[in-house]
Amino acid sequence: MLSHDFLRFNAVALATVLVGAVTQAECFNFSYPIFKPQKGDDLTFFGDSYMASDTIQLTQNVLNNGGCGRVFYTRPLKLWSTGRGTLPFNSTFVINITPLTYPGGEGLAFILTGHADIPANSVGKWLGIISENTMGSSTRGAVAVEFDTRNSYPEDLDDNHVGLDLNSIYSRKQESLSVNLSSGIDIKVKVQYDGQGLSIFVGENRSVPVIFESLNLYDYLPQKVYVGFSASTGVYAQINYVKSWEFSGLELYDDAPNLLWVWITVPGAIGLVIGFSAFLYWKWQRKTKDHVEEEDDPGWFELQIQGSSTAPRKFKLKELEAATENFNSDNLLGRGGFGTVYKGVLVNREVAVKRFSRNSHEGKRDFIAEITTISNLHHRNLVKLLGWCHERDELLLVYEFMPNKSLDMLIFCNQNHGVETNPVTLNWERRHAVIYGVAQALDYLHNGCEKRVLHRDIKASNVMLDSEFNARLGDFGLARTINPSDQTHHSTKAIAGTPGYMAPESFLIGRATVQTDVYAFGVLVLEVVCGRKPGRQSMQNNYNSSIVDWVWENYRGGSILDVVDLQLNGVFSKEQAECVLVLALASCHPNPFQRPSMRTALRVLAGEVAPPVIPMDRPAFVWPPAMPPSLNEDLEDYPFSGDQNTPSSQLIGR
Ligand SMILES: *[C@@H]1O[C@H](CO)[C@@H](O)[C@H](O)[C@H]1NC(C)=O
Ligand SMILES: *[C@@H]1O[C@H](CO)[C@@H](O)[C@H](O)[C@H]1NC(C)=O
Ligand SMILES: *[C@@H]1O[C@H](CO)[C@@H](O)[C@H](O)[C@H]1NC(C)=O
Ligand SMILES: *[C@@H]1O[C@H](CO)[C@@H](O)[C@H](O)[C@H]1NC(C)=O
């Protein structure tokens, strides 16, 4: 394992050898593929900003008439030196903005500044960069690349532009963007400075910058600058996420080149370089010898698997290559955002091998999440993880094989591909049993296991069917464990999940809760009963074409049983179907407080209690939601009850 210091030391030595006679420079690099608390030690948070799981959130998720936050890499960068110009850097990051009001506001910026503290009165249109009092008053103040989502000055181009701000909020240059900054999607940005000019790239296209400006940062910034992000809200508010950040640059670390020092260190440095190369060669040899690459990602230390015989084990890549005939496409079972799933045969046992896409940070993160969450879970309605493999660049998970594929294939097979399956394959009893099985699995995740787990991606294609058509919930790529100490906020990562299954509040609170899982469960139930896909649902409260709306319409019209899948030819228990449908609608209630817990849902499905009472008309989505009038048995499952009054305060100031 190479330590960071060791690398830096060698970089200094190398830089000394290469540029030693001219000046001394050191690499100033860091990389956050995701943001984790333990890595966050070298970030400093100001104002409203905080570390949400895996991301940085620069402002609060609530409407409070204006707030501001900044996050900086703790160590300042020595950017220039008199007479020697300014050193180059590249900063690549992913931002994600979701409006909390319509329209949202105000904006987010990548910023370099000598003063880390938030300037007074810099909320709202000032983006936390500068304030009226400080604007233009200091020759070396702040340089920012703003992503402005509000047209707040006559000087602003529009409400969706990128601008280069040099010690002023009026951009030196600004350009309207074709991508919608406020649409809640990940937007990749690269800010490249080569010592003479600054280029801003937005999106994947790196051939032409959106903005290029010739400038020497020496004219605008002090010698030592903090690099980071700032954002602010006003009456208009939005969620301002930074999801990843990579910075590579050089830094001057000694003003006066000391020739004597160079003469002494150069031979030493050459020695070091030779030593380092020998070390690398040794490491490379060792690696090629057994083809095993251990991962030193911190996530691996979270792997706590009991050493019992049923516990997942580590597989050799060779074993899995043989099992799947070298990932032969004939053995392909499915494909998803994460990668591909192959069928394999291991010593007469059939398995499903999930192969994550290469070189994807998300892939690695999901892989780790999946292993860490699922390996400690044991329930007959969960797909069992048999093991994993991480060798060379391959990330593989091995599961027991499910001969009856996934639920969506069974429900929609007939409609898509003629008459491949017998319609009675999924008769009413089976459908009811599948729903009951999924409810049991979810109740186990929410209430039954040691640490509460949110699945976050409940949908028909993630429910597998075993040889007896028992439902087995799978795909824990997005699942997250909640530590008992975190019980109150249940925050996981940024918005994730599958459109159509996502509760309307997901887009506002930007995280998963027990209730967003219940919502997805409700959609899944409707899908199974109606044999119909969930339909689209957009960022706004516009979910009119969704299955939830359609079923609720029928409920209001007194014809709820009309929605039941026609393929059943009317062969189903009317009483049971009505009960299940009403439960599903209650689970999809726009107010998360009104949704039942999985425990209650299970009792309804078992016929122990009546389904929750729901209004005839689908209630409108209102945020913040009305609190339930009385505290009932499910209250412990309402994470917002604490959150609302003290929004994320536990997370501030790390
Ligand atoms: C910045 O990126 C460009 C293009 O990828 C590269 O040529 C340059 O060397 C990089 N500069 C630094 C300081 O990393
Ligand atoms: C951008 O997306 C937001 C949120 O979805 C929406 O309110 C806004 O109208 C969109 N702007 C444009 C120009 O499409
Ligand atoms: C990038 O954008 C420029 C200008 O819009 C265009 O000419 C070029 O074809 C694009 N390149 C790619 C790879 O999309
Ligand atoms: C810093 O980043 C640059 C560009 O990505 C890379 O060439 C260089 O090797 C890195 N240095 C260290 C010490 O990681």
From TrEMBL:
PROSITE patterns cross-referenced by the UniProt entry: LECTIN_LEGUME_ALPHA (PS00308), PROTEIN_KINASE_ATP (PS00107), PROTEIN_KINASE_DOM (PS50011), PROTEIN_KINASE_ST (PS00108)
Cross-referenced SUPFAM superfamilies: Concanavalin A-like lectins/glucanases, Protein kinase-like (PK-like)
Entry GO terms, CC: plasma membrane
UniProt key word Cytoplasm: no
UniProt subcellular location: Membrane
Main location: membrane
Residue ranges of the TM segments: 260-282
Compositional bias of kind Polar residues: 642-654
Keywords: ATP-binding, Kinase, Lectin, Membrane, Nucleotide-binding, Receptor, Signal, Transferase, Transmembrane, Transmembrane helix
Entry annotated with the keyword Kinase: yes
Family under the similarity heading: In the C-terminal section; belongs to the protein kinase superfamily. Ser/Thr protein kinase family.
Name the record gives this protein: Protein kinase domain-containing protein
Lineage of origin: Eukaryota, Viridiplantae, Streptophyta, Embryophyta, Tracheophyta
